Structures are given as structure tokens and as C-alpha cells.
Amino acid sequence: MLTRRFWQISAGLVLASSLCTGLAHAQAASAQQPSLGDAARKAREENKGRQPAKVFTNENIGDVKGTVSVVGTEPAAPSADAAAPAAAAPGAPGAPAAPKADAKGEDYWRGQFAAARKKLADDSKELDVLQREYNLKEQQFYQNPNVALREQYGRADLNKTRDDINTKKADVEKDQQAITTLEDDLRKAGGNPGWARTQ
Q: Is residue 14 part of a domain?
């Protein structure tokens, strides 16, 4: 009983001394760091000689004078040969029909991406089915010719299924490349990248 009491008192003393030490360290650290008010006064004194930065809002944007500086090359002026077809009447016979600028809008791109993703999904499902069939056939095929005669599948069937799998893998890679090409075409056409996503 006495030893238990002794350990309780000693644990209390150790805890109290660690708390006092922690408080002393905290007070020493706060004495070394300047207060928030002192830091604000110092920042104000440093900024006294400087002019505040100009802030543009909708109200004062009209007061801006000067021109806009554009970095890059200036687009070439259209040549006389290029201007001649544009001057021809659009309904005149022999005049080439001008492509519509918005012919490839959001609906076009979303349709193209939907078709490409559907083809990729279909080919991926077919590849999965072929792979499962191959695994099943491989388990059922034995190297022992006596056992292989009793089985339903032979090595020729396994080889054909493996060739079908390789062909379907190539189709899946082509589908993935087609989607990548569509994304590049969309970027080059200046379309919204969101059109490539599914809705």
C-alpha cells in the first residue's frame, strides 16, 4: 500500500515538473518572437514610402490609356488568290461550297467520342470473353495424347483461340489510338476539351 502511494506521488511530481518545464520553454519562445502588433507596425513603417499598387476594377477600366502588347508573330495577310474565291457568290455554280465554321460543334465531337468509346468497350468485352475461353480450354487440355483424345478441345482449338485473342488485343490498341487521335483533332480544331468526356 505504501509503495503504491509512493509511486502515485512520484508520478505526480514528474508530471508537474514536466509541465513547469514546458511552460518555461513556451514563455522563453514567446519572449523571443515579436507580437503580431509589433510585426504589423514594422510592416506599416516599411511601406510608408511606397505607392500602393494600381487596382483595376470594372469602374475604372475605361480610364486605361495605351495599347495592348501581343507577343508572337502577326498573322499573314490573305493573298489575292485566297481573296478571290471568298469574293465569289456562295450560290454561284462552280464556286466551291465553303465549309461551315461550326460544322464540327459539340454534338459532332460528342458523337465521335461516344462511338469510339463504344467500339473500345465492345472490343474489350470480346477480348475478356476470349481470354476466359482460352483459360478454360487450356485447363481442359492435357499433354498426354491418351487423355487429350478423351477431352473436348485440342491444341488446334487452343491455338486458334490464342490467335483470336492477339487479333482482338490489336483491335483494342487501335481503338485506344483512335480516341487519342480524336482528342488531338479536337484540340487542333479549338474545341472544348469537355466535349471528349462522357456526360
A: no
